[in-house]
């Protein structure tokens, strides 16, 4: 990498240059082995290939021979050639010129750099506008510095490899010898070359200029390219600062209006401070909030099959946070997939917004993903409970007609959550073979809720944590195992002992006659299906 970015080795050899060439060769030798483990983008599948065998096969069939040849040339020029003869020095320069073929491989690094800049621009859209503007300016300055680096290296190489009697390197070295009576090192000439390249992008001048025809041609080409590049980067930077001034002026104007309003209305100092703090927090919440599906319009135009796969891959981990849906994935994966398509919705709110208020009808269960919510009851509005990520609220809305008993408010800059729509869930499970299981879970959920609170009106929206769900699911799993035990096993026999244990658990739980009848009905249906298959 070093010999492609700083072509010092193209000039006369020295101890420092020999060390630099040795480091450069070591870097490329390490890169030869690392390339066997560096993944690549498979254009046929669109995925990054990370399997060792395929990476090695791809590398051997593409860049391996070129890299190995360059390393052999490096070794030959460093250890098997002497610089004290003219013929050897000429051949050495020819071999080192061949190493410039590595610039072709460096083009892949530019692709990575371009993807990095695109990612930074995307991330900056969701951060502070001041930081985004500052980072954008630094990005453009970095690109300018990188261009000056490569142009300076080419300028230095042009002054060192041409056969002309006079070059800018020789002229400047002679000038330094006359003025300062000392010779400059390669680093001085490198920085001089970078400064010369920078003056081609900006209206500035320096004491180095072209002294022969090839250097004049190169200067003209660089000046024309610099004229376009300088105009582009200068316009982009000015646009960034103009956008910052516009957004800052709007924000400042709104804050001034708020201060004037609370001053004219003689609002108390404490309330005024809370209003301004809320406005500031809401602004930060909009800038740092999570990206949700509804924010990306292009995703809604995806083909149906691809959109369903995306919803399933995002939704399955979310639904499995609830025990009953995780258990349902083992029994009917298609039902849970339909929930991801129809019943699961992604949302986010910012500081101070209410998710629901007391008296509103409950229409969904909420699964927290990030941020923090505060839930307060009507009976004690000053006392609140925190709802944190991986917790949920309003599960009762899924199983009974529910009315919210309290108020849920975003207490963080932003809160990200998924909601399971009750009506969509009922439609999906109404056509499912597992509807009896969900009905049994719903009945047991309401029963445990009444046992804890006495009446539904006294219940909390936060009822139904993992401990409650696990307690409800334990007998349901036993009943399901009892039903499955009537199916023939590997030996073709019915597991009556497992059925008896399931029945014993069911009776001990104390379910009503209606539960018995439903259980027997399901057993009769399963036995009928089994008998029909055996008779056929």
Automatic annotation (TrEMBL):
InterPro entries, per the entry: cNMP-bd_dom_sf, Ion_trans_dom, KCNH_animal-type
Any one Gene Ontology BP term: regulation of membrane potential
Keywords: Membrane, Transmembrane, Transmembrane helix
Full protein name: Kcnh6 protein
Ranges that cross the membrane: 20-41, 62-81, 131-158, 179-197, 217-237
Domain Ion transport: 23-246
SUPFAM superfamilies from the UniProt entry: cAMP-binding domain-like, Voltage-gated potassium channels
Gene Ontology molecular function: voltage-gated potassium channel activity
Topological type in the membrane: Multi-pass membrane protein
Species the sequence originates in: Symbiodinium necroappetens
Subcellular location: Membrane
GO cellular component, one term: plasma membrane
Pfam families per the UniProt record, alphabetical: Ion_trans (PF00520)
């Amino acid at each position: 990498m070093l010999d492609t970015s700083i072509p010092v080795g193209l000039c006369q050899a020295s101890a420092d240059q020999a060390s630099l060439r040795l480091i450069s060769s070591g870097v490329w030798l390490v890169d030869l082995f690392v390339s066997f483990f560096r993944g690549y983008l498979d254009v046929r599948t669109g995925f990054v290939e990370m399997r060792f065998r395929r990476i090695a096969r791809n590398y051997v069939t593409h860049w391996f021979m070129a890299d190995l040849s360059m390393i052999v040339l490096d070794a030959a020029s460093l250890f098997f050639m002497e610089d004290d003869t003219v013929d050897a020095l000429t051949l050495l320069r020819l071999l080192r010129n061949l190493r410039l073929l590595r610039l072709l491989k460096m083009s892949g690094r530019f692709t990575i750099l371009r993807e990095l800049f695109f990612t930074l621009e995307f991330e900056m859209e969701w951060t502070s506008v001041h930081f985004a503007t500052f980072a954008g300016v630094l990005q453009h300055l970095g690109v300018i510095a990188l261009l000056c680096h490569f142009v300076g290296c080419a300028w230095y190489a042009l002054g060192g490899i041409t056969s002309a009697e006079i070059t800018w390197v020789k002229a400047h070295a002679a000038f330094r010898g006359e003025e300062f009576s000392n010779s400059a090192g390669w680093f001085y000439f490198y920085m001089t070359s970078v400064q010369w390249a920078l003056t081609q992008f900006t209206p500035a001048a320096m004491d180095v200029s072209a002294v022969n025809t090839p250097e004049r041609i190169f200067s003209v080409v660089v000046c024309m390219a610099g004229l376009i590049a300088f105009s582009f980067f200068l316009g982009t930077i000015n646009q960034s600062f103009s956008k910052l001034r516009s957004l800052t002026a709007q924000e400042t104007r709104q804050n001034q209006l708020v201060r004037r309003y609370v001053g004219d209305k003689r609002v108390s100092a404490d309330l005024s401070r809370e209003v301004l703090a809320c406005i500031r927090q809401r602004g930060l919440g909009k800038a740092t909030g999570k990206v949700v599906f509804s924010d990306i319009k292009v995703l809604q135009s995806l083909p149906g099959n691809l959109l369903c796969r995306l919803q399933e891959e995002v939704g399955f981990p979310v639904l499995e946070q609830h025990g009953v849906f995780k258990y349902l994935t083992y029994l009917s994966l298609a039902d849970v997939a339909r929930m991801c398509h129809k019943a699961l919705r992604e949302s986010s709110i910012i500081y101070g917004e209410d998710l629901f208020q007391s008296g509103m009808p409950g229409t969904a269960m909420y699964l927290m993903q990030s941020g923090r919510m505060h839930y307060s009851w009507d009976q004690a509005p000053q006392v609140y409970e925190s709802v944190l990520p991986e917790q949920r609220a309003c599960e009762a809305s899924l199983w009974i007609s529910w009315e919210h008993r309290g108020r849920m408010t975003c207490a963080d800059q932003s809160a990200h959550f998924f909601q399971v729509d009750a009506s969509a869930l009922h439609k999906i499970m109404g056509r499912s073979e597992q509807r009896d299981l969900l009905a049994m879970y719903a009945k047991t959920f309401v029963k445990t809720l009444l046992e804890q609170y006495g009446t539904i009106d006294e219940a909390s929206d936060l009822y139904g944590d993992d401990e409650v769900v696990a307690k409800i699911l334990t007998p349901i799993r036993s009943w399901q195992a009892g039903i499955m035990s009537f199916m023939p096993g590997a030996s073709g026999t019915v597991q009556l002992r497992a059925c008896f244990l399931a029945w014993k658990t069911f009776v001990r739980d104390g379910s009503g006659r209606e539960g018995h009848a439903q259980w027997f009905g399901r057993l009769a249906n399963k036995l009928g299906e089994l008998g029909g298959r055996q008779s056929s």
